[in-house]
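Hi everyone,

Forwarding the result from last night's run.
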Amino acid sequence: MTDTIEPAEAALIEPTLEEPKLPGHESRLEPKPEWQPRYPGSGRLKGKVAIVTGGDSGIGRAVAVLYAREGAKVAIAYLCEQDDAKLTKALCEDEGAEVLLSAGDLGDPRHCQGLVDAVIQRWGRLDVLVNNAGEQHPDEDIRDITPEQLQRTFQTNIFSMFYLVQAARSHLKSGAAIVNCTSITSYQGSKQLLDYSSTKGAIVAFTRSLSENLIGDGIRVNAVAPGPIWTPLNPCGGSTPEKMERFGEDTPMKRPGQPNEVAPAFLFLACEDSSYMAGQVLHPNGGTVVNG
């Protein structure tokens, strides 16, 4: 008897809705996260084309709007939150940017290829790839993490980065930048986010390894490791209302960060201001000191 190995697409895990009563849409989150850029644009991404995954809300929205203000054309990739995505598109257009929306599961390599193809067809180039999309599902006991949840979390948080870079690689020229979103949990760990934290550790290793792989071609790869940031990820990802009331209070600054406090790190790593940085991780985390 011979075992059969299924193709990758046959192993895709569909989105899990373990916490359906909690908001996954920024439009339903209170108080509203602060996404607005804090300063006038200076043309640091003028003429550039960027893909921002998870760009419909949270950190992704703040990054997309800031990139738009700085002169970039922006492709916003998201799963299914149409209301959030349409608002982010309008906000970017208000900054004078051309915008492309792309809905779908980035854990599917075919969708990632289609996203890159659509960007190249429309604008003919790709200069910045922001791998920001992610999901989490807290569990108190490792035995509660199902195989489906484990694969789904890795599929969204790290497999998608491989798939997108593979699809984008032939279009990334010298001067291009890749910015990955990891997390403080990669460095500190999180007893309730075993699978999520593991993916974030993988992202750090992926960032450093990919940097070594691409730096010779003039392509810089870096990452951002946010601390607790007020976005839909945590309430959607299973944090209880009681925990959310104290969200971020364990940081030295005693509060959660806002998306517009993180977005400038993504801008810095995407533009020429960081021309001598590769394989590095920035830490907007409210003052927590971590190694790495």
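The chain has a mean pLDDT of 89.

Cheers,
N.
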